[in-house]
Structures are given as C-alpha cells and as structure tokens.
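Repro case for the chain-ordering regression, as requested:
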Amino acid sequence: MGILINENSRVLVQGITGREASKVTKEMLDYGTKVVAGVTPGKGGQEVHGVPVYDSLSQALEAHPTINVVLTYVPPLAVKDAVMEALNYNIPFINIITERVPMLDAAQIHAYARLRRSRIVGPTSVGVINPGARVKVGPIGGVNVDRVYQPGSVGVISKSGGMTTETSWIIRQAGYGISTAMGIGGDFIKGGNFVDLVPLFFNDPQTEAIVIFGEPGGGDEEALAEYVTEYGLQKPIIAFISGRFVDHMPQGVQFGHAGAVVERGMGSPAKKMAALRKAGVLVAEVQHEIGTLLKEVLG
Amino acid sequence: MRLYEFEGKQLLAKAGVPIPKGYYITYSEMGAVGADPELERIFDELGGREVVVKAQVLAGKRGKAGGIRFADSPEALQQVVEGMVGSELLGETVTGVLIEEKAAIEREYYISITYDTVARQPVLAISQEGGVDVETFAKEHPDRLILRRFGPIVGLMPWVVRDAAAAAGFRGRELHRVADIAVKLWRVMVDNDARLVEVNPLVRTADGKLLALDAAILLDGDARVRHPETNFPPRQATGRPLTERELIAQAIDEGDYRGVAGKYVELDGDIGMLTSGGGGSITLMDAVAAFGGRPANYTEYGGNPPAEKVYRLTKVVATKPGLNGLLIAGGIANNTRVDVTFEGIARALEEIRPEYPIVIRRAGPGEEEGLRIMRELAQRLGLDMEVYGAELPMTESARIIVEKAAAYRQKKHQM
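-- result from build under test --
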C-alpha cells in the first residue's frame, strides 16, 4: 500500500533530456520505478537511459496509455504550460520538482488541478517514495536510497526536501520504516498541503503514524491543526517545526498590512507548534526527538 | 522584492489607477538643490498652495516617524526636502522623496490584493476604515474588513468587488468606482507578477473621486525574468541596503541556473554557517541558537550547484571578520553531490586557511570522497577540523561547533 504511487505507477518525465532530469531518471530506473516515457518538445525520437522521448504528452500517451504519473522537471517559467498539458489529459498524479515557480502560475495550476480532480505535489518537491512498492519519483533518497528508506509503517510529509530524508533517517535509526515519504516543498502556494495529504495516510492501512516537518510562514500547519480538531486525529501525528530562530531575529520592517490582516497572526513556528499541540499532535522540540516520540506511540 | 511608493505608483498609473500628481527627487539630484529653481517649479506645478513631501523608505508607519511633511511655500519645501533627503528614518537612509500635490481628503479607505496561502487563491481585502491603524482595526472589527477569495484563472470580476464593497459599507456609485479600481489592481498583480498590491489609504477627495494616496507593492522574485522592462535596483527584503558580502553572494547565482548558492544574509554573530538545503539550514540555525551560539550569517546552498558556485559562497561566508567557528553541515543530500560541492569548499578553505575551528557533518551522493577531501585538507594544512557523516545526528554538529567556538573565543582573549 502506501499513498500516491505504487506498483502500478507508470511514470512520464517532462523535461527528461535536462541534466538533472536525466540523472534522476537513471536513479529512478535503478531503484525500480517504471519510467516509461519522457517529453521534451523538439527532442522527440531520442532516448534517455533507454526511455523514449516524445514531443508532446499526447504522442507519449498514444504509445504508452498506462501512464498515470507525471514528473515535472522543466524550467520554472515552463512549469505552468507543462502541468496544464498533463492536467488536460487527466493525469491523476503530478509531481513538480522544479523550484522558483511564480506564485500566480502556482495558484492557476492549483485551481485547474481542482477542476480536473488531479492531485499535485510540489512545486519544489524532492519527490515521493514508496519503499514497499520500490517506486520513487524525483530525486528523493538520491543514489543510496536503501540506507534510509526501508518499508514500514510511518508516513512522512516534509516541506523541506533535504529534511525529508534526514527525518526518514531519524525514523530508521529509531527502528521504523516508511510507508510513503514525500517532500511537498516550502512554497507559499503548493499543490499538496498537509491537509490534502494527511487524510490519505489516515486511509492507508500500511501507515500507523505520520511525521510532518513544518517550516515558518504560511498557515499550512495551523490548517492541519484545524483539520484534525474537526475530523479527528485518526492516527498519531508527530510534528517538528523548524525556524524558531526566526522568532528571535530582529523583526523585518513591516511592509503593508495585507499579510497580517489575511493571515491573522499565523506563520510563526511557536504559534504553529502551539496550534498543533492543542489539536493533539505530538510536537518534537529538537529534530531527533521524533524518534523518541515514535517509540512512545508505536511501542 | 518590495517597491518604494514612487515605484509602486508608477505601476498603478500604468494600469490606470488615479494617483496624485507628483515628482520624485533622488539624493544625487539634491547636490544642486540650493541654487536650483527646480523645487520652485515643482511647487508651482503642484498647484502652488500646499504640497506633501514623503520620504521614500520601505518601512511602514513612516508618517508617525516624521517621514511625511507638508510645505506651503517654495522656501518651506526646500527646507523640508533638505532635512529629509539623506536622513535616517526607521533604520533606512532616505535616498529620495516624493513631492505630491496635497489631496483634499474626505475619507480614507483600505484595499489590497494578496494571496491566501491556505486557500491558495488571491484574496481581495476591502474596508471603509483606511489609514495607518487598519491592522488594529481589523483585529477589533473583523466584520468591517471584508475578505473575498477569487479564482486566479478567471481573475477578479467586478461583481466580486461590488459584493465585497457593499458588505464593507460602500453605497451607490462608489460601488462601481471601487470595483473599477480593484479590477485594475488585479491587473497590476497579473501584469507585474506581484504578490501584494495594497493601497492604504485609497481616498475619496472632495470632488467624489477615488485616489490612490499610497502604494505598497511586493513583486514575486521568482517571476522577475518575465519582466525585463521593469528593472528595479536590488534591495534587501528587510529594507536595509544589501551589505557588500550580500551583494557579492547575490552575483553568484546570476546567469547560472545550476543549483543555488547565492542566498546569504549577514548577521552579527561569530559562527559562520555554510549550510545546505533550506530546511537543513534553518534547522541548524535553530540548533546553534538553542545551544547558545550566534550565527554570523544565514545561507543555504542546494540543488546540486557546481563546485565554482560553492567556492565563491565559501569565500563570502568564511572570510567575514571576527569568526570564531565555521559550521559546514547539512542533512543527507538527495541530489546535491557532496564530493563536487566539498571540492569547491576545500579550494576556498585552502586559500583562506582559517585558524578558527571547523565542524563538518554531511552525507549524500559522493559522501565518501567529499569527506575524504576535507580530512585530507585538514591534515595537510593543519586545520582545527572535525569531520562527520550520517552517523552523527545533524543537529549535534551545531552543539559541537558552539562549544568549540566558545573555547576558541576564550583562547583568543587570553592571547
């Protein structure tokens, strides 16, 4: 089991001929991911590590109708176009690795994905991994995947890409494995928020506990606290929120009031931690305390 | 990127939002002001009765700090301008002033568009109570500050604004006037890739027209390449000008999209931070602070940058005067090559040959070679360096550097 990707995932990489994308394609293939096609407009007919490249998604789908995951690896200003193309063909899961996608584009992508009922994780995602199914999309885990990612019962959702693996490493060192781990990116506007993904773990029989890594800014952690307060904490959630030093830094000069009036005091790590605690989430004070807390809830 | 009021108003004017007639005067133009009839001409062209002089700083609430002054004669204008330009205001040097005709204000409103990051939609905020205290007001009377989220594909339709404005208490023809302005503000958001467009106050003048008296615009840094036509000079998010080191760091990423190594914020501590990954870097800043240390900077390199970029970043981080320690740390990298990036770091350290202690904790692709490079360097140059891989919890490395830096500081004082 696990969420978002599994044995049946057939992956297409957008921008597959790029330097990073091609390297990651090799890593994914080596791990066991079924990468069946790639798209780079203008480079149709080439191959990347044996994966055929097409000029457009419709061509790729014609040759490989089972494609159900798209990994977006195109430059920032091309992301909107690429994801809209994937949404047009109702690809159920799109993972955007690209960083620095303009906010307007991210908002439009999110709005259109809702209309098409597709699920998006990213931008700025480090990828998703399901060790039990031996499937990973994106650079998550790098080349030495198995050192950190072993099958198990803990789901990981991290705003930070690097900390996805560090968090999973702490879980491994505590003696547990991973059902699915993912980096959702720390962008202000992202396709997959904690509240979008935690319910999937609630419904996943393999997952027994969920670990989230939060960051300052935005209201995603507060929204999760509200969600579990309303719908119940169906499985234990352990959270670590980075960035408390931000609260102790000299305050940035205020600019405009809109942020304050719209977010109404959200955003600071201390407030996020307080909101999550109040909702019954176990909050780790230092990152490696996640291991101790896991042992408490899973025994 | 935050815009100064005069820059923001240029964007508003381009979209057809009415702004007061005004002139922007910069510091460099001020050298000749004493003998220049320029201010007299400006005073006359702005009606010849009374003008307002507004210090161009990025901080809010500048009015209370003396950044907004009035003048009713060319002589008074000259006095105000000379006193203001070059002065310090809210931690910033006033490099320019905006001189505007004084509007006949009947009422002050508030209007803004930004993104609601939870709903992941743009949101319009509108109130009949504008001015400096809108935030306090919104807290006390949330019912009188109306928020309306709207779809970013369709954009802001006039009916959404009219509906919000009516709920906020606007009546009659003003509903249409406010809608007209708000729709134009949305165009400013889209056409310039702004993250925030705020007009506070939007005023109703004696003749019943609406006028944007101020403008706070935040541009999306990730979209600047889409707008080569609006080329605003660089500035720090906090409003303070970039330091020399920050400027050098910023140049690292220019023209080379491979990875990121140019984010650098100078702080006043004594532990240099050469940390990788956004999340890892922040977590390590937390840890250094938690163990009683004071970071000398914030940085994050990542996305598998080439050695050259990390070399340049190391030169910026490790040469800051007064360092008592350097932490080179990150999590278990997913795709950033430890050997490649450490090659750049090693090359810089070889040139700098620091005497202060260095602690390294890193893992990821190429970690064996990367850590070997560092151990070899330490031995060859006789550096005070401890090198760890994944076996050490990342945040433990923060504890070690804080302790070593304290010991080094003490040793320095004894010498």
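Ordering looks correct now. The CA atoms of residues 207 and 260 of chain A lie 37 Å apart.
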